[in-house]
Specification:
Elements: E1 9-12, E2 20-26, E3 29-36, E4 39-48, E5 54-62, E6 67-78, E7 84-92, E8 98-106
Length: 114
C-alpha cells in the first residue's frame, strides 16, 4: 500500500479530546505536529516504509507540564468507509513508561478557519 502522508490529519479513533496531528512527508521522511485538549504541544519524526508503515519517535508537553517521550510503529489499514486508519503500537519512556495499542483515524472533514 503506497501512501503519501503529506497534508493528512489524524486523531485517536472515537476521541473527543481535540488532539489532532497534521502530517508532512518528503520522500521517506515523515513528521507531524499535534496539540489540543491535554496536549500543549507534541511532535513526531520518523520514516515511512514502502508498505506505508511509519516508524516514529514522539515527544509531547502536557497541560500539567509533564514531558512525555517514546516511540511508535503505525501500520496503515483502511476503515469501512475507505479512509485511512493507523494501528499504533506505542512505547513511552521514563517516569511515564507504558506500552499500548491505539488507533488513529484520518480526519476527513475540512479544517476550521482560524
Amino acid at each position: 500500500m503506497t501512501i503519501d502522508y503529506d497534508g493528512r490529519r489524524f486523531r485517536k479513533l472515537a476521541s473527543t479530546d481535540g488532539v489532532t496531528a497534521r502530517y508532512h512527508q518528503k520522500d521517506d521522511l515523515v513528521w507531524a505536529d499535534f496539540a489540543g485538549g491535554p496536549v500543549r504541544r507534541g511532535s513526531v519524526n520518523g520514516v515511512c516504509g514502502p508498505d506505508g508503515t511509519l516508524h516514529l519517535a514522539y515527544t509531547m508537553v502536557l497541560a500539567g507540564g509533564d514531558v512525555i517521550s517514546g516511540r511508535t510503529v503505525n501500520t496503515p489499514e483502511r476503515d469501512a468507509d475507505g479512509g485511512l486508519l493507523l494501528r499504533e503500537e506505542w512505547e513511552r519512556y521514563g517516569p511515564h513508561a507504558e506500552t499500548g495499542v491505539s488507533y488513529l483515524a484520518e480526519v476527513r472533514e475540512p479544517e476550521e478557519a482560524g
